Amino acid sequence: MPPAGVIERYRSFLPVGPATPVVTLSEGSTPLIPARRLAAALNCELRIFLKYEGMNPTGSFKDRGMTMALSKAAEAGARAVVCASTGNTAASAAAYAARAGMRAVVLLPAGSVALGKVSQALAYGARVLAVEGNFDHALQLVRDLCDRFPITLVNSINPFRIEGQKTGAFEIVDELGRAPDFHFIPVGNAGNITAYWRGYREYDALKTSGLPRMMGWQAEGAAPIVLGRPVADPHTLATAIKIGNPASWAGAVAARDESGGHIGAVSDDEIVEAYKMLSRLEGVFCEPASAASVAGVVRSLRDGLFRENPRAVVVCVLTGHGLKDPERAIKNCDAIPTVPAALEAVASAAGVS
C-alpha cells in the first residue's frame, strides 16, 4: 500500500472531520537528506539536511497545501477552482482538481513560467491563461474572479493551504527527534515560511520539540520583504520566487520576528552556484528557487551567523524538483559533444583512454 497522504498522517492537527472527502495523491513523507559533502565543500561543521519537497507527486511542496484546499473545496461542494501561479501552484492545483473531478483555471504571468510547470498544468487538463502582467496582477485578477463568480480560490491566501503546508515541519521534527536550530527556506509569496513556523509552534506545544530560527531568502531582484516595500517589476531567474508583493507578507515577518530569525536576499549568481553544488555534490536536483535556501546558508556562513554554534543542525527546504525548469539546467551545462560510433573516440571523449 502507498503511504497515506498528509491529511491521514496528521489528521489530529488539521481542520478536517469525518465528512471531509480527502483528495490525496499520497503527498508528503518527503526525504530529509544529510548533506555531508555540501558541508565539507563549505568547510564547515554544520549538520545540514535537505528537505527535498521535489519528491511530492507534482514535484513541489505545493501538494501539501493543495490536498487540504481541494478536500475542503470538495466538502463545500465546489465544482471549480482557480489560482494565479508562477508555475508550481498551477501544476498542483490542476492535478488535485483532476483527482477531485473539478475544473481548474490557472492564470500565469505571460513569459515568466518555466516550461516544465506549464506542461504539467496543461497535461492535467487545466484551463491555462497567460496574463499580460506579473504574478501580482494575476493574483488580483483571481481574487476579483472569486468575488464575482462561483469558483474557489486555492492560492496560499486560502487558509487551508497553510494548514496543509505546515505538515512539513511535523515531518522534520519526527525524523530528527527535535526541531532544527535553523530552518532555511526560499520566500516568494511567503506562505511556506508562514506555514512551517505554524507547524513548529504547534508541535512544540505538544512535544516540547523546540523551535528553530526561521531564515527566509528572497532573490535580490524580487525582495520586497527585505526592502520593506512592494517591487513593481520583480526580476530573477528563480521564477518560483519572482513575486513583488507576497500575499503572506505579514506571516513571514511574524515567523522571522517571533523566531529571532532573518529574511535576506541572495543574488541570481549565488542561487545558480548553490543549485550546481546541490546536484554535483549531493545528487539532488532542485529548481533554481529551491537553491535560494542553500545560497542563504553560504551567505550566513560568510557573515558569521554560526560562529557561536558551529555544529548547528540546519534544515534547508528545497521546494521543487529540477525537472520543473529543464531549460535552466541545460543552460548551466556544457554542450553535449557528438562523437563517432567508435570505441576509441568514445573512450577519448569520456576521458577514460
Keywords:
353 residues; 15 helices; 6-stranded mixed sheet; 4-stranded parallel sheet; globular; single chain; alpha/beta
Q: How would you explain this protein's 3D organization?
A:
By secondary structure, this protein is α/β, with parallel strands linked by helices. The chain is 42% helix and 14% strand. It is built from 15 helices and ten strands. It has a six-stranded mixed β-sheet with strand order 1-2-10-7-8-9, sandwiched between helices. A four-stranded parallel β-sheet has the order 5-4-3-6, with helices on both faces. It is globular.
What low-confidence regions span 5 or more consecutive residues with pLDDT below 50? none
Task: Count all strands and give the number.
Answer: 10
Q: So what's the overall shape?
A: globular
Tally of helical runs: 15
Write down the overall mean pLDDT.
95
Question: Order of SSEs, N→C?
Answer: HEHEHEHEHEHEHHEHEHHEHHEHH
Task: State Rg.
Answer: 20 Å
The largest pleated sheet is described as: 6 strands, mixed
Provide the structure class.
Answer: alpha/beta
Strand order of the largest sheet: 1-2-10-7-8-9
Summary, kept brief:
The protein is α/β, with parallel strands linked by helices and 353 residues long. Helices cover 42% and strands 14% of the residues.
List the helices and strands and how they pair.
Layout: H1 6-9, E1 32-34, H2 36-41, E2 47-52, H3 62-75, E3 80-84, H4 88-100, E4 103-109, H5 115-123, E5 127-131, H6 135-148, E6 152-153, H7 159-165, H8 167-176, E7 182-186, H9 191-207, E8 213-219, H10 224-227, H11 249-259, E9 262-266, H12 268-282, H13 292-302, E10 313-318, H14 326-331, H15 343-350
Parallel strand pairs: 2-10, 3-4, 3-6, 4-5, 7-8, 7-10, 8-9
Antiparallel strand pairs: 1-2
Helix pairs in contact: 3-4, 3-7, 4-5, 7-9, 8-9, 9-11, 12-13
